[in-house]
Amino acid sequence: MAYNRVLQWSVMTRTWWLYDAENQCAFRSAKKIVNYLQGKHKPIYHPLSDIGDHVVVINTKLVAMRDDRWRKFTYPHHTGYAGGFSRASAWRLHDMDPTKVMHKAVYQRIKGNLLRPNIMRRLHLFPDDNVPDEIMANISDQIQQIQIVPKRLEDYSQLEKENFPQIFEWPEKEMMPKKKQPEVLQTEET
Amino acid sequence: MVFLSIFRNASTMYTRKTVGRCPKPDKYWKRSMYFRMMWKYYGRRQHIYSLGARTVHRALRYSTHSTGLKKKYMREMWTMRLGAACNQHGIEEEEFLSSLTEANIPLNRKVLTDLSIYEPRSFQSLTTFAKQRKEENGLSDALKPTFSGILTHGDKKK
Amino acid sequence: MAASCRLISHCRILSRFCNNSGISPNLTCLQGCMVRRGLNNSRKYQPLLRELYKRRIKAGPEPELHPSESGCWNYNSEVYAFGKRYGEEFDESFLRKAFITSDYRQAEEESRRQLGIDLESVPVGVVDNSELARKGEQIASRYIKAYLRHSYPMMLEEGIQAVHDYLMDDQMIYYIASNFGLTDLIMSPNYPPEDHMYCTAFKAVIGALAESQNEERAGLFVRDFVVSQLAGKNLMEIWDVKNPMGLLSSALSMQGRGPPEPRLLWQSASATMLSLYHVGIYSDKQLIGRSPGETLPIAEEIAAKDALSKLMNISLTTKPLQFGEKSENWKYDYNKRNQSVSDLLQTSSSI
């Protein structure tokens, strides 16, 4: 390749990455995303050289947490005044702002120094997959998800459910009784 | 005692104790040595010897201590860079290093990092060699995770 | 305490000043001294040095002197050693002539004229190096072109000319000559000699070698000291190609290949200031050159240059230039010319 100038340009420009947070653990995703934001995925990394990339995270509304952490994990906050302490559980914070859990997970992963605000500015969070075109135009690559997205029961077709291999049949008394259809509605309609 | 020549032994004859009224030595040279190290300090430490000298002593202690730390930090940085370089080619750093060692290719982290930055093609050939060797050993298939889904350009790892 | 502090800081200011001015260190020991201990450390010593330092500042910097001023100088042996240093057998009369500048000759004539000596009846008998330099320049120029044509047979004649001009440029010749041990040998009215005197003297040394031995030997001298400056250089950066895409298409059509087709390989951050485009150039569905760039036209132009350099076999990945024993017995055809751009355009248009 000719011309060292453009080679250097291609080394030093910031690449834009896409990360789909659907059904991904917020904390472990943050661990991976932070490497890209700081430039630790490049062999020329140095803590003082500003070579981090941009990461666009979509579907933050659908992030996952292990066990019952949505209930147990809390985010503390203090206003600075006496009696100003409060804490919000993860599900409540997520309810207020669906990008906040991901934002905090990434923020807490980065070392608290003067570089942190600038690094955080390179993180673009979107609750769903509606990303503005001017941001989508920059993206050139995708970060691999850390977990396999499980297929839900409702995603399987009726045929697949029927063809699913059954080893034995449950006895009658072990099975849940089927819900009775409310008859009142039917009568009203008729 | 008969001395045929003048007996010159500075340690016994010309020390301050024996000479008595000899003036004290000039402190200028010692002080100027400290002043040369004090130029960077702020305020009175820069210009006043007794204050600046303390800071200089502490600074020298720190610098001696950090000669050891520097080695540690450099190794950490090489490890990080090499990990990143290996990830780009889809191989773990540990596997890469161990297969190079087994094949008697004595390259350390520092050299491999320099190769990955300045000679990416040479580094790529080394990773290709390591991957091929790993496959020939046959253990990788057993440990390989099963992955189903759409593989894109970025999905090189595993 | 305050007084001594002032004294010391004053001295430090002086020593800083001394660092900046190019004063010879023999009198300014103030900054270079180690800590002195014991009885040697007299209180009278430092004021003495300070006084000497002040006098040094007042006197100003010493002029740069020719080594002969210090008394230990033998011009004959220095001239002899010059040739031996580079492993060449010089005829000493030619080599001496190579160091005499025209300014020196004129100064000699002027001094004689002032003494009232008639120059026509009693000639100066000094021949300057301009004739030798002209000859040396011709030999160097001829050899460089022949060497480049031999090394890069696929390269276009314009490129050969551009690289030749780069090597024969005054700046490059001065760079080589100034590191060649000529400073003390050049005969000039003033010391050190001026820049153009270095260039002339270096070219004259080449001419003197050709006179002493032969032109072939002078050519090898040029190869070793001038052409070797190309080692590790990117020739496409030296040669500024105008309209590389047009040149590439005509070069491809002459080889009977398909027209060049630029394609975007990948892009990043295209809506920002740090946009990056990777452009590849294909011909007959084969990648013949690629390059990154901050905009599409720049990336395309440089990719075309990359493809051209590969076509002409001058890219950085090709075999390096051959020096030393490997190119000792090369036979050059001095009349041979490489294909030029105009030839290429004519043939491609006729096809």
TrEMBL record, chain A:
InterPro entries: Ribosomal_uL13, Ribosomal_uL13_bac-type, Ribosomal_uL13_sf
A cellular-component GO term for this protein: mitochondrial large ribosomal subunit
GO MF term set: mRNA binding; structural constituent of ribosome
CDD domains: Ribosomal_L13
Record's keyword annotation contains Ribosomal protein: yes
Keyword list, A-Z: Ribonucleoprotein, Ribosomal protein
GO biological process, alphabetically ordered: negative regulation of translation; translation
A Pfam short name: Ribosomal_L13
The organism's place on the tree of life at top rank: Eukaryota
Similarity-based family: Belongs to the universal ribosomal protein uL13 family.
Descriptive protein name: RP-L13
Automatic annotation (TrEMBL), chain B:
Keyword annotations of the record: Ribonucleoprotein, Ribosomal protein
GO biological process annotation, one example: translation
GO MF annotation, one: rRNA binding
InterPro entries, A to Z: Ribosomal_bL20, Ribosomal_protein_bL20_C
Keyword Membrane annotated: no
GO CC term (a single one): ribosome
Family per similarity comment: Belongs to the bacterial ribosomal protein bL20 family.
Protein name: Large ribosomal subunit protein bL20m
Organism: Mytilus coruscus (Sea mussel)
Lineage, uppermost ranks: Eukaryota, Metazoa, Spiralia, Lophotrochozoa, Mollusca
UniProtKB/TrEMBL annotation, chain C:
Similarity-based family: Belongs to the ribonuclease III family. Mitochondrion-specific ribosomal protein mL44 subfamily.
InterPro entries found in the cross-reference section: Ribosomal_mL44_DSRM_metazoa, RM44_endonuclase, RNase_III_dom, RNase_III_sf
One GO molecular-function entry: double-stranded RNA binding
Localization per record: Mitochondrion
Organism: Mytilus coruscus (Sea mussel)
Alphabetically ordered keywords of this record: Hydrolase, Mitochondrion, Ribonucleoprotein, Ribosomal protein, Transit peptide
Domain RNase III: 93-235
Name recorded for this polypeptide: Large ribosomal subunit protein mL44
UniProt GO cellular component terms: mitochondrion; ribonucleoprotein complex; ribosome
Example of a GO biological process term: RNA processing
A Pfam family assignment: RM44_endonuclase
Principal subcellular localisation of the protein: mitochondrion
Superkingdom classification of source: Eukaryota
